[in-house]
Write a structure and sequence with these properties.
five-stranded mixed beta sheet, Nucleotidyltransferase, domain 5, alpha/beta, about 270 residues, 10 strands
């Protein structure tokens, strides 16, 4: 009788099409729960929690993940840029949840988008997923800027091929580097500032970080458009800090803070067809 009930429950879940998508970054792991095309819930956990082994995960983190996944999902798609953490998280989920787990890696993505670079396997999977998402959501050519641990620029040409990009130190990395590698410069809060000239050390750093990155991103967008014939390119911003900067970057046309999760969901729905 119990077996029959389990079969019925799983059938209901398949019809509901609830699934978990996981994006493992260098700083954070982002879990997204989707019902078909709709993102219904998110969970963010620091990546360093999974730096050791499954047994070292604290009870609070375990409870958060377990409560997030629960028993209302049948599939879990995982991608990431930290290989050891990917394996740990897969084993963690296998131990506690009855889920179909699929890892989206460079080989898988190479079947979805042409990667026209010298070393395709070195391209971060998040960058390829973002590019594939951009192709499905907007017209190419595309320039996608991700304000993550690193600030990255990724280009997709008019034929739909990923042709490479730029990697810069991320905003948080720059702030931390100033504080940790100097004797007197403080660790400042990253925020938008109105005045360009600071009147003390902290406000001078705040201006340098904010307006420095506005100039870096805006300048590189213009240079990339000019050098690659991307005059009519769609410019897309994503990543945790993208919302802070987009108001002072007039070139950005599309703001998609959850672009990687949306890309994973596009891949998931194609997989299920």
């Amino acid at each position: 009788m119990r077996s029959k009930n389990l079969i019925q429950e799983r059938s209901q879940l398949e019809n509901k099409n609830m699934h978990i998508l996981v994006d493992i970054g260098n700083t954070n792991i982002l879990f997204g729960k989707f019902d078909n095309l709709d993102l219904v819930e998110q969970l963010r956990i620091e990546t360093k929690v999974f730096n050791k082994d499954v047994s070292s995960i604290d009870s609070e983190t375990y409870k958060k993940i377990n409560n997030f996944i629960k028993n209302d999902c049948i599939d879990c798609f995982i991608s990431g840029v930290v290989p050891d953490t990917i394996l740990l998280l897969i084993n963690f989920i296998k131990n506690y949840q009855d889920l179909n787990i699929v890892e989206i890696d460079n080989e898988y993505l190479g079947n979805l988008i042409k990667v026209d670079v010298d070393k395709p396997n070195e391209v971060g999977v998040d960058r390829l997923i973002n590019s594939y998402a951009g192709l499905n959501l907007f017209n190419s050519p595309l320039i996608i800027i991700d304000f993550g641990t690193a600030t990255t620029f990724d280009l997709v040409d008019s034929s739909g091929s990923y042709i490479g990009g730029i990697i810069c130190p991320g905003v948080n990395l720059s702030v931390q580097s100033l504080a940790h590698n100097t004797a007197k410069l403080p660790l400042i809060e990253i925020k938008k500032v109105e005045k360009l000239i600071g009147k003390d050390t902290a406000s001078a750093i705040e201006s340098g970080i904010y307006w420095g990155y506005v100039s870096l991103v805006g300048g590189l967008i213009d240079r990339l458009k000019k050098q690659n014939g991307f005059k009519d390119a769609n410019i897309v911003a994503t990543g945790g800090l993208s919302g802070m900067f987009r108001g002072d970057l007039s070139q950005i046309q599309h703001y998609e803070p959850d672009l990687t999760l949306k890309g994973l969901n596009i891949i998931y729905n194609e997989y299920k067809k």
